Amino acid sequence: MQAKLTLSLERDVIEQAKEYAHRQHRSLSKMVENYLRLVVSREQKEVEISPIVAKLSGILPPDAADNFREEYTDYLEKKYR
Where are the domains of the chain? Predict the structure, then answer.
């Protein structure tokens, strides 16, 4: 179902967006709709955690990555001396 929305934007932004929409052969309304869909879908993807990731969460201690980084740095220093 279509609904109207009123936005207040800087005049120059509106003009630039209209020109861009024209070059893309799209309506400005459709561009805004697509952008909002993208924003909402990204937010939903960031919140959802797969069951596998949830099971793995907390397995390694918080400083494990730091220890690995130090050990790998030492390894590379020895290897390339």
Answer: 11-79
